[in-house]
Amino acid sequence: MIRLLGVHRGVAALLATLVFGAALVVSALPRMVESSLDAAARSVIGSAPPATASLAVQFTRRFDLTPMRTTAEAARADTAWRALLPPALREVADPAPLIEITAPPMLINERAHRYLTLKWVSGADRRVRYVEGGPPGPRSGTRFEVAVPAVAATEMSIRTGDTVRLGELTAKVTGLFEPARPADRFWALEPELTYVIHQRVPLAIEDDLIVTALTDGDSLAGAELPMVFRWLVTPAPDRVTAGNAAAVLAATEEFGRRLGRQDLEVALSTGFDRMLQEYLDRLAVTRALITMFLSGLAVVCLGTTALAVLLLVQRVHGDLLLMRARGASLVQVVGACGGAVALAAVPAAAAGQVAAGLVPGAPTAVARLGPAALAAGTVAIACVAVALRQSPGRQSARRRGQGRLTQGRLTGSAARRIVMEILVLVVAVASLHLLRTHGLGTGDAFLAPAPVLLALAAALAVLRAGPALIHLAFRAAARRTAAVPFLGLAAARAVPGAALPVLTLLPAVALAAYGMVTAGGLEEAQRQAAWERTGAEIRVEREQGIPPETLEQITHAPGVRAVVPAAVGTTVAEVGFGGRPATVVAVDLGAYRRLAAGSPLHLPAPGTGALVSPDLSAMRSFEIGWPAQMTVTPAGTVDAMPGVRAGDGALIVLPAAPEHVNTLLIAGDAGAVRPLLPSGARMSTVAGALADITGTPLTAALTAALRVAAAALAAYALAAVAIALTGGAARRAEDLALLRALGLTRRQAGLITVLEAAPLLVLTAVAGLAAGLAMPALLGPGIDLSAYAGGRHGALATAALLPVLPCVVAGALAAGVAAVALAGAYLGGSRGHAG
């Protein structure tokens, strides 16, 4: 076995390289993706507002005599709620209790629109630092002692020692506090303790200001006031992973059902289940896409490896015949060749798996078993190939089969081939139909390999149509006097073993092209979504309005190319009974279109009047109260405006420069604009929005996986072409040697070889490119990537379907495969002639 490898060490090295690369990709890619999936789970929980990601058990106490009169009772209730947590949820929950007791806001008697909320939070005393005074003490009759946030005291003009009247109650301010550690997660759960809440009721002309003050817990719980008790269970972000997310979601739902069976009327309030469900939906799509490309990689890698194995078997055929002549049995011959292949493949597969261990991430079942399965499959292919080639009855069976074909009857192998091709076609069409109707990520394992099945069906079509096209070319060449085309095409009609190269090459080119186009389309859709979020290269918003002097400074700032002032606000369109909520955008559409020129934004054309959403287009006119009391006469319709979220309300676009500006649309350098912004202004940029969309771990994992898979498929496609050309080199050299005696030149030998070997490979590359470019349209309805493209539904099925640059790259891949086939065939024929 070692001697066989030594004699044919070039082919053995090629086989080992292919097995190593396949094992590395098949083992490393799932690990990389799984690591990104876990990071995505941590990001989903960690980046969400803690109050949204927490599970809040809430009990509302009325004036009647009910439990919860002390903080000790509230603590015992916390223990009771946590005992109801299912194991999966208990494992990810922070064991530290967080209990709140809150009274409703009470009007400060001597100050209109000023309210004070009394609150107690467990552990708050350890997380505050008193900048003035000290902590509150117990209640004395109707007088509470309270501590107020320092920032709220400044805004509300409250000082230490003040006594505030709250109806029949009074509150004495004993101290002013600020967070001891502002970065503590506690303050994200209790943000109202760090600022004054501003809210405005409908039709009011002034904001209500609400300050939340800390007070003694037992004093608050024992007061005859309506009270809200909340127990917060906060999941730890680093404990939720892609592996346990589904179990945690099921446990959250079970926890809600258990709470519903309690005697005390409590309610579970959380956004944790919704966040997990959205994450799991995206997780399912991501895993399905990765499975799809891994299945394609497996087919291509196995096919390319099989070509290399068959090349090695062909090279050692003479050595094995000598062994048989010396008395070796068929089993011994098969064992010798299989052992030689195992010596090359098994260490290479093990080395690939070890190298993949350097990639961060937990090993999945595919990562563990893939390299071993690849090595075992390689050895099995070698054993089967040798057994078939060395079988004594093989040649006679082939001759008998050819005789039956000449008599017009199908052999059993030909019938089985037709049945297999029909089966592949039926399964491919069925999987495509299910994928388009059910969608990827439904958990159906039959859907993920649909693109691979489509590529295999296209390869079978090429195997059927290719020889017919070559035969037509041969008949045309037979009518000409030139001998080279006739000889080359005559040889091409009888090229043996073309099925495996086509079945390997076409899926490789098709899936590589599909991966490139999908990744490129995803990038374009993400860019489009980023522009639609901001509406301009730079967007500045300020609720209080932007002063004219600030607008003037930004307009003339170095690095600013153009500025378009706008006003965005809400109003009520006086249509129907009670009116219709509407978002109003006042902007010079002509100037806006000039500013956005060259961007992917699609803006409405400026007209002679206002543009309204379709639900208002039937009105001849109607009144609005913002930005001024006016009558709107619709002159056209508009579905959406970039950077504006109308929600369920109507949209009204006033195509004129506003008098009072609260939004600036800017083209230029964000660094030049930022220092000029007034307090309270918010600035967003396309670059920042794009970073938010592409920076999520799931999106990064999917994009990286698509690019890695496409690169691996391209490399194996080129390897398959090279091996296919090398496999027939010896036979072609013998044929050319016969023609050389008749005066065949080096150039003619190269052309004959090109016409013999390259047509089917070039046709396969072109068909693979066409199949890959068609897959986004065929699979588009079933693969929703809007979650990776900033929420733009259908983005990859419309404008970003065939992005120019990825199509060019995919075309370059097909052209490269064709060039390798043509150049390799020509050079091989020339060398064969020279030899």
TrEMBL record:
According to the record, the segments passing through the membrane are: 288-313, 333-359, 365-388, 418-435, 447-474, 495-517, 708-730, 751-779, 799-827
Annotated Gene Ontology cellular components are: plasma membrane
Give the domain of life. Answer: Bacteria
Q: Which InterPro entries does UniProt cross-reference here?
A: ABC3_permease_C
Q: Does the keyword Membrane apply?
A: yes
The membrane topology noted for this protein in its Swiss-Prot or TrEMBL record is:
Multi-pass membrane protein
User: One Pfam annotation, family name?
Assistant: FtsX
- Cellular localisation: Cell membrane
Keywords assigned by UniProt? Cell membrane, Membrane, Transmembrane, Transmembrane helix
Per the database record, which ranges form the ABC3 transporter permease C-terminal domain?
Answer: 709-819
What's this protein's name? ABC3 transporter permease C-terminal domain-containing protein
